[in-house]
Design a protein that fits this description.
- This protein is α/β, with parallel strands linked by helices.
- The protein has one domain: Isochorismatase-like (Rossmann fold), CATH 3.40.50.850.
- It contains eight helices and ten strands.
- Strands 7-4-3-8-9-10 form a six-stranded parallel β-sheet, sandwiched between helices. It has a two-stranded antiparallel ribbon with strand order 1-2.
- The longest helix has 16 residues.
- The radius of gyration is 17 Å and the shape is globular.
- The two termini are 15 Å apart.
- Bound molecules: tricarbonodiimidic diamide.
- The site of tricarbonodiimidic diamide has 10 residues, from helix 6.
- Tricarbonodiimidic diamide binds next to helix 6.
Length: 222
């Protein structure tokens, strides 16, 4: 058992590498590249790309240590049978979920836009969780995988900080997992939301988690 201590807010956190996994939330072309779901919602997707290089560096370090890395993708069945009408019909996007866009049908499993970006592509043995919601636990087998691998601590990365990262951290916290949000490995279309979302996690003594960054995590596991 290798125990390490990660420098984090609101306090340092001790964890075992064998019982810690990274979860990389929704680093998909649909959110990070032009022509996908994020852009149809009116967002500047370039704001999310700042998380790519830190995620890649962190992944390299975690993989070198043999740590578990889990990837998620937000998306729906081609027939939209798992897409709530309230989600599909919401707002006034330029294209709706299921419509044909520049990277195939928006937010649909199997389409090019649904793929994880090549820079952060999963490697053999890394689970991919296809999730219909914002949280990675809702309607997925993530918790079974974590239980079977005896994971108690999650290093949470990905996009967007205040939407799918936050929802997943809240779900994980309620299920008893300790979550460390890796700040520079997350990003938002709204930089101010990113900052406040991180503060919300660590406030009140770490009301639903910890916040650290990739350099501190890599230093801890070195
Ligand atoms: N729109 C937005 O900020 N996020 C999402 O719709 N999904 C995720 O955060 N992955």
């Amino acid at each position: 058992m290798t125990n390490v201590t990660i420098d984090a807010k609101p306090a340092a956190l001790s964890c075992s590498l064998q019982h810690t996994a990274a979860i990389i939330i929704d680093m998909q072309r649909d959110f990070v590249e032009p022509g996908g779901f994020g852009e149809t919602l009116g967002n500047d997707v370039s704001l999310l790309r700042r998380a790519i290089a830190p995620c890649k560096t962190l992944l390299d370090g975690l993989r070198a240590k043999g740590m578990l890395v889990i990837h998620t993708r937000e998306g729906h069945r081609p027939d939209l049978s798992d897409a709530p009408p309230a989600k599909v019909s919401r707002g006034a996007p330029s294209l709706r979920i299921g419509d044909m866009g520049a990277m195939g049908r928006i937010l649909i499993r199997g389409e090019p836009g649904h793929d994880i970006i090549p820079e952060l592509a999963p490697i053999a043995g890394e689970p991919i969780i296809d999730k219909p919601g914002k949280g990675a636990f809702y309607a997925t087998d993530l918790q079974s995988i974590l239980i079977n691998r005896q994971i108690d601590t999650l290093l949470v990365c990905g996009v967007t900080t205040e939407v799918c990262v936050h929802t997943t951290v809240r779900e994980a916290n309620d299920r008893g997992y300790r979550c460390v949000v890796v700040s520079d490995c997350c990003a938002s279309y709204f930089p101010e939301f990113h900052e406040v979302a991180l503060r919300m996690v660590a406030a009140q003594g770490g009301i639903f988690g910890w916040v650290s960054d990739s350099a501190r995590v890599l230093e801890a596991i070195a």
